[in-house]
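Session log. Operator J.P. requested a structure for one protein chain; no other inputs attached. Running the standard single-chain path with C-alpha coordinate output.
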Amino acid sequence: MRVIDAAAVHAALNYSRLIPRLREAFRIGGEVPLRSHFHIDPPAEGIGAGGPGGTLLVMPAWQPGRHIGIKAVSVYPDNATYGLPSVIGAYLLFDARTGAPKAVIDGVALTLRRTACASALAADYLARRDARHLLMIGAGSLAPHLVRAHCAVRGYTRIEIWNRNRDRARQMAEKLTDLNASIAVVEDLEASLRVADTVSCATLSRTPLVRGDWLKPGTHVDLVGGFTPEMREADDAAVERAAADGGLFVDTRTGATREAGDIVQPLQHGLITAESVRGDLFDLCRGDGFARQDAKGITLFKSVGSALEDLAAAELVAESVAS
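Structure written below.
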Protein backbone atom coordinates (compact mmCIF):
# COMPACT_ATOMS: atom_id res chain seq x y z
CA MET A 1 0.00 0.00 0.00
CA ARG A 2 1.37 3.37 -1.04
CA VAL A 3 1.56 6.44 1.18
CA ILE A 4 1.18 9.52 -1.03
CA ASP A 5 2.17 12.89 0.40
CA ALA A 6 0.85 16.37 -0.36
CA ALA A 7 3.58 17.24 -2.87
CA ALA A 8 2.74 14.18 -4.97
CA VAL A 9 -0.98 14.98 -4.79
CA HIS A 10 -0.49 18.56 -5.98
CA ALA A 11 1.78 17.35 -8.77
CA ALA A 12 -0.78 14.78 -9.93
CA LEU A 13 -3.90 16.95 -9.72
CA ASN A 14 -3.28 19.57 -12.36
CA TYR A 15 -6.45 21.67 -12.66
CA SER A 16 -6.77 21.02 -16.38
CA ARG A 17 -6.53 17.26 -15.77
CA LEU A 18 -8.79 17.06 -12.72
CA ILE A 19 -11.70 19.13 -14.07
CA PRO A 20 -12.45 16.69 -16.94
CA ARG A 21 -11.95 13.74 -14.57
CA LEU A 22 -14.62 15.18 -12.26
CA ARG A 23 -16.89 15.75 -15.26
CA GLU A 24 -16.52 12.06 -16.16
CA ALA A 25 -17.19 10.98 -12.56
CA PHE A 26 -20.47 12.89 -12.39
CA ARG A 27 -21.53 11.48 -15.73
CA ILE A 28 -20.85 7.91 -14.58
CA GLY A 29 -22.07 8.32 -11.00
CA GLY A 30 -21.47 5.99 -8.06
CA GLU A 31 -22.61 5.13 -4.57
CA VAL A 32 -22.27 8.18 -2.33
CA PRO A 33 -23.88 7.93 1.12
CA LEU A 34 -24.50 11.19 2.95
CA ARG A 35 -21.42 12.06 4.94
CA SER A 36 -21.40 11.76 8.71
CA HIS A 37 -20.81 14.80 10.95
CA PHE A 38 -19.47 14.59 14.51
CA HIS A 39 -18.87 17.62 16.74
CA ILE A 40 -15.65 17.53 18.79
CA ASP A 41 -15.74 19.60 21.97
CA PRO A 42 -12.73 21.85 22.71
CA PRO A 43 -10.25 20.76 25.38
CA ALA A 44 -10.50 22.15 28.88
CA GLU A 45 -6.97 23.62 28.69
CA GLY A 46 -4.03 24.04 26.34
CA ILE A 47 -4.23 24.40 22.57
CA GLY A 48 -7.80 24.98 21.46
CA ALA A 49 -9.19 25.68 24.94
CA GLY A 50 -12.03 28.16 24.88
CA GLY A 51 -12.48 27.78 21.15
CA PRO A 52 -15.38 26.37 19.16
CA GLY A 53 -13.97 22.86 18.99
CA GLY A 54 -14.09 21.04 15.68
CA THR A 55 -16.04 18.87 13.30
CA LEU A 56 -15.13 15.39 12.13
CA LEU A 57 -16.46 14.44 8.69
CA VAL A 58 -16.46 10.89 7.33
CA MET A 59 -17.11 10.66 3.59
CA PRO A 60 -17.36 7.28 1.78
CA ALA A 61 -17.96 6.59 -1.91
CA TRP A 62 -17.49 3.67 -4.28
CA GLN A 63 -17.98 2.44 -7.82
CA PRO A 64 -18.42 -1.35 -8.10
CA GLY A 65 -15.56 -2.98 -9.94
CA ARG A 66 -13.36 0.08 -9.58
CA HIS A 67 -12.55 1.65 -6.22
CA ILE A 68 -13.83 2.34 -2.72
CA GLY A 69 -12.70 5.46 -0.94
CA ILE A 70 -13.13 6.95 2.52
CA LYS A 71 -12.03 10.41 3.57
CA ALA A 72 -11.82 11.40 7.22
CA VAL A 73 -11.55 15.16 7.66
CA SER A 74 -11.35 17.43 10.70
CA VAL A 75 -12.49 21.06 10.45
CA TYR A 76 -11.13 23.37 13.15
CA PRO A 77 -11.93 27.04 12.39
CA ASP A 78 -9.32 28.40 14.86
CA ASN A 79 -6.39 26.44 13.43
CA ALA A 80 -4.92 29.48 11.67
CA THR A 81 -4.00 30.72 15.16
CA TYR A 82 -1.63 27.76 15.43
CA GLY A 83 -0.31 27.94 11.88
CA LEU A 84 -2.39 24.96 10.75
CA PRO A 85 -4.99 24.56 7.99
CA SER A 86 -8.62 24.71 9.08
CA VAL A 87 -9.25 21.47 7.21
CA ILE A 88 -7.00 18.44 7.80
CA GLY A 89 -7.59 14.86 6.74
CA ALA A 90 -6.53 11.65 5.07
CA TYR A 91 -7.94 9.53 2.27
CA LEU A 92 -7.92 5.74 2.11
CA LEU A 93 -8.36 4.13 -1.33
CA PHE A 94 -9.38 0.47 -1.74
CA ASP A 95 -9.67 -1.83 -4.73
CA ALA A 96 -13.44 -2.45 -5.05
CA ARG A 97 -12.90 -5.88 -6.64
CA THR A 98 -11.00 -7.34 -3.69
CA GLY A 99 -11.39 -4.82 -0.88
CA ALA A 100 -7.61 -4.54 -0.60
CA PRO A 101 -6.27 -1.12 0.47
CA LYS A 102 -4.21 0.53 -2.26
CA ALA A 103 -3.13 3.93 -0.95
CA VAL A 104 -3.26 6.41 1.90
CA ILE A 105 -3.36 9.89 0.38
CA ASP A 106 -2.84 13.31 1.94
CA GLY A 107 -6.38 14.57 2.51
CA VAL A 108 -5.63 18.29 2.72
CA ALA A 109 -4.07 18.53 -0.74
CA LEU A 110 -6.72 16.23 -2.21
CA THR A 111 -9.54 18.34 -0.73
CA LEU A 112 -8.06 21.64 -1.87
CA ARG A 113 -7.66 20.49 -5.45
CA ARG A 114 -10.96 18.66 -5.86
CA THR A 115 -12.99 21.42 -4.20
CA ALA A 116 -11.50 24.10 -6.43
CA CYS A 117 -11.95 22.01 -9.55
CA ALA A 118 -15.59 21.18 -8.71
CA SER A 119 -16.33 24.92 -8.56
CA ALA A 120 -14.52 25.47 -11.84
CA LEU A 121 -16.44 22.59 -13.40
CA ALA A 122 -19.75 24.22 -12.43
CA ALA A 123 -18.50 27.61 -13.65
CA ASP A 124 -17.66 26.07 -17.02
CA TYR A 125 -21.41 25.52 -17.43
CA LEU A 126 -22.69 28.61 -15.61
CA ALA A 127 -20.27 31.53 -15.92
CA ARG A 128 -20.56 33.74 -19.00
CA ARG A 129 -18.15 32.82 -21.77
CA ASP A 130 -16.88 36.40 -21.81
CA ALA A 131 -16.33 36.61 -18.02
CA ARG A 132 -13.08 38.46 -17.42
CA HIS A 133 -13.33 39.83 -13.85
CA LEU A 134 -13.07 37.38 -10.94
CA LEU A 135 -13.61 38.42 -7.32
CA MET A 136 -12.26 36.03 -4.68
CA ILE A 137 -13.77 36.50 -1.20
CA GLY A 138 -11.54 34.86 1.38
CA ALA A 139 -7.80 34.28 1.46
CA GLY A 140 -7.48 30.94 3.20
CA SER A 141 -5.62 27.90 1.91
CA LEU A 142 -8.39 27.04 -0.58
CA ALA A 143 -8.65 30.51 -2.15
CA PRO A 144 -5.58 30.45 -4.44
CA HIS A 145 -6.62 27.04 -5.76
CA LEU A 146 -10.09 28.38 -6.53
CA VAL A 147 -8.59 31.29 -8.45
CA ARG A 148 -6.32 29.03 -10.49
CA ALA A 149 -9.07 26.50 -11.17
CA HIS A 150 -11.48 29.23 -12.31
CA CYS A 151 -8.75 30.58 -14.59
CA ALA A 152 -8.49 27.12 -16.16
CA VAL A 153 -12.04 27.45 -17.57
CA ARG A 154 -12.33 31.21 -18.25
CA GLY A 155 -9.89 33.85 -19.46
CA TYR A 156 -9.90 36.18 -16.46
CA THR A 157 -7.80 39.29 -16.96
CA ARG A 158 -8.63 40.97 -13.62
CA ILE A 159 -8.61 39.19 -10.27
CA GLU A 160 -9.59 40.94 -7.06
CA ILE A 161 -9.14 39.51 -3.56
CA TRP A 162 -11.11 40.60 -0.50
CA ASN A 163 -10.45 39.28 2.99
CA ARG A 164 -11.15 40.61 6.47
CA ASN A 165 -7.42 40.33 7.16
CA ARG A 166 -5.84 42.51 4.47
CA ASP A 167 -2.32 41.15 5.12
CA ARG A 168 -3.46 37.62 4.29
CA ALA A 169 -5.04 38.91 1.09
CA ARG A 170 -1.73 40.55 0.13
CA GLN A 171 0.17 37.34 0.84
CA MET A 172 -2.22 35.42 -1.37
CA ALA A 173 -1.92 37.98 -4.18
CA GLU A 174 1.86 37.51 -4.18
CA LYS A 175 1.35 33.78 -4.87
CA LEU A 176 -0.68 34.48 -8.02
CA THR A 177 1.66 36.83 -9.87
CA ASP A 178 2.41 34.16 -12.48
CA LEU A 179 -1.16 34.35 -13.77
CA ASN A 180 -1.77 36.34 -16.94
CA ALA A 181 -4.04 38.81 -15.14
CA SER A 182 -3.92 41.93 -13.01
CA ILE A 183 -4.13 41.05 -9.31
CA ALA A 184 -5.53 43.53 -6.78
CA VAL A 185 -6.38 43.44 -3.08
CA VAL A 186 -9.60 45.36 -2.45
CA GLU A 187 -11.20 46.84 0.67
CA ASP A 188 -14.63 47.87 -0.62
CA LEU A 189 -16.47 44.57 -0.97
CA GLU A 190 -19.68 46.16 -2.19
CA ALA A 191 -17.92 48.06 -4.98
CA SER A 192 -16.17 44.90 -6.19
CA LEU A 193 -19.35 42.81 -6.05
CA ARG A 194 -21.13 45.37 -8.20
CA VAL A 195 -18.70 44.95 -11.11
CA ALA A 196 -17.41 41.34 -10.90
CA ASP A 197 -18.37 38.81 -13.57
CA THR A 198 -17.70 35.83 -11.31
CA VAL A 199 -17.65 35.79 -7.50
CA SER A 200 -16.07 32.90 -5.61
CA CYS A 201 -16.50 32.83 -1.84
CA ALA A 202 -14.59 30.51 0.50
CA THR A 203 -15.01 31.57 4.11
CA LEU A 204 -16.30 30.19 7.38
CA SER A 205 -18.75 33.08 7.74
CA ARG A 206 -22.05 32.74 9.56
CA THR A 207 -23.32 36.08 8.26
CA PRO A 208 -23.80 36.85 4.54
CA LEU A 209 -21.00 38.57 2.63
CA VAL A 210 -22.50 38.39 -0.87
CA ARG A 211 -25.63 40.51 -1.11
CA GLY A 212 -28.04 40.02 -3.97
CA ASP A 213 -28.72 43.73 -4.35
CA TRP A 214 -25.03 44.27 -5.12
CA LEU A 215 -24.78 41.76 -7.98
CA LYS A 216 -24.86 43.00 -11.54
CA PRO A 217 -26.86 41.13 -14.22
CA GLY A 218 -24.97 38.15 -15.60
CA THR A 219 -22.88 37.45 -12.49
CA HIS A 220 -22.01 33.88 -11.57
CA VAL A 221 -21.73 33.26 -7.80
CA ASP A 222 -19.69 30.32 -6.48
CA LEU A 223 -20.26 29.59 -2.77
CA VAL A 224 -17.81 27.14 -1.27
CA GLY A 225 -17.16 27.83 2.40
CA GLY A 226 -20.37 27.13 4.31
CA PHE A 227 -20.81 23.45 5.16
CA THR A 228 -23.33 23.55 8.03
CA PRO A 229 -26.95 24.81 8.20
CA GLU A 230 -25.82 27.70 10.43
CA MET A 231 -23.25 29.11 7.97
CA ARG A 232 -24.09 31.76 5.35
CA GLU A 233 -21.98 33.39 2.65
CA ALA A 234 -24.81 34.90 0.57
CA ASP A 235 -27.99 36.61 1.68
CA ASP A 236 -31.56 35.62 0.83
CA ALA A 237 -31.74 38.18 -1.98
CA ALA A 238 -28.82 36.55 -3.81
CA VAL A 239 -30.37 33.10 -3.54
CA GLU A 240 -33.81 34.35 -4.57
CA ARG A 241 -32.42 36.27 -7.56
CA ALA A 242 -30.63 33.17 -8.81
CA ALA A 243 -33.65 30.92 -8.25
CA ALA A 244 -35.91 33.29 -10.17
CA ASP A 245 -33.38 34.30 -12.80
CA GLY A 246 -30.32 32.51 -14.21
CA GLY A 247 -30.55 29.44 -12.02
CA LEU A 248 -29.75 27.96 -8.62
CA PHE A 249 -27.41 24.95 -8.76
CA VAL A 250 -25.69 22.68 -6.21
CA ASP A 251 -23.05 19.97 -6.27
CA THR A 252 -25.47 17.37 -4.86
CA ARG A 253 -29.10 17.96 -3.95
CA THR A 254 -29.01 15.72 -0.88
CA GLY A 255 -25.95 17.38 0.61
CA ALA A 256 -26.82 20.99 -0.18
CA THR A 257 -30.45 20.82 0.98
CA ARG A 258 -29.45 19.30 4.31
CA GLU A 259 -26.07 20.85 5.12
CA ALA A 260 -25.63 24.20 3.36
CA GLY A 261 -27.02 27.18 5.24
CA ASP A 262 -27.20 29.16 2.00
CA ILE A 263 -29.81 26.66 0.79
CA VAL A 264 -31.23 25.27 4.04
CA GLN A 265 -32.19 28.61 5.59
CA PRO A 266 -34.08 29.98 2.54
CA LEU A 267 -35.85 26.61 2.31
CA GLN A 268 -36.86 26.78 5.98
CA HIS A 269 -38.15 30.35 5.57
CA GLY A 270 -40.21 29.45 2.52
CA LEU A 271 -38.25 31.76 0.22
CA ILE A 272 -37.40 28.90 -2.14
CA THR A 273 -38.57 25.31 -2.55
CA ALA A 274 -36.66 22.13 -3.35
CA GLU A 275 -37.83 22.61 -6.94
CA SER A 276 -36.06 25.98 -7.02
CA VAL A 277 -32.76 24.11 -7.37
CA ARG A 278 -32.53 23.82 -11.13
CA GLY A 279 -29.81 21.19 -11.17
CA ASP A 280 -26.76 19.59 -9.60
CA LEU A 281 -23.40 18.54 -10.99
CA PHE A 282 -24.88 15.27 -12.20
CA ASP A 283 -27.44 17.21 -14.26
CA LEU A 284 -24.89 19.70 -15.57
CA CYS A 285 -22.35 17.07 -16.59
CA ARG A 286 -24.90 14.75 -18.17
CA GLY A 287 -26.62 17.57 -20.04
CA ASP A 288 -23.59 18.09 -22.29
CA GLY A 289 -24.63 21.69 -22.79
CA PHE A 290 -24.07 25.22 -21.59
CA ALA A 291 -26.56 25.63 -18.73
CA ARG A 292 -26.62 29.45 -18.65
CA GLN A 293 -29.83 30.65 -20.29
CA ASP A 294 -28.80 34.22 -21.17
CA ALA A 295 -26.12 36.82 -20.57
CA LYS A 296 -28.09 38.75 -17.93
CA GLY A 297 -29.19 36.00 -15.56
CA ILE A 298 -27.67 35.57 -12.08
CA THR A 299 -26.41 32.02 -11.59
CA LEU A 300 -25.45 30.61 -8.20
CA PHE A 301 -23.62 27.37 -7.44
CA LYS A 302 -23.44 26.09 -3.86
CA SER A 303 -21.08 23.25 -3.00
CA VAL A 304 -20.70 21.35 0.25
CA GLY A 305 -18.39 18.73 -1.22
CA SER A 306 -19.10 15.26 -2.52
CA ALA A 307 -17.24 12.07 -1.75
CA LEU A 308 -17.51 11.26 -5.47
CA GLU A 309 -15.15 14.18 -6.13
CA ASP A 310 -12.66 12.76 -3.63
CA LEU A 311 -12.86 9.33 -5.22
CA ALA A 312 -12.25 10.67 -8.73
CA ALA A 313 -9.32 12.75 -7.52
CA ALA A 314 -7.82 9.85 -5.53
CA GLU A 315 -8.02 7.57 -8.56
CA LEU A 316 -6.17 10.14 -10.65
CA VAL A 317 -3.51 10.49 -7.97
CA ALA A 318 -3.02 6.73 -7.74
CA GLU A 319 -2.75 6.43 -11.53
CA SER A 320 -0.22 9.27 -11.74
CA VAL A 321 1.98 7.89 -8.98
CA ALA A 322 1.90 4.39 -10.50
CA SER A 323 2.86 5.56 -14.00
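Operator note: The two ends are 15 Å apart (CA to CA).
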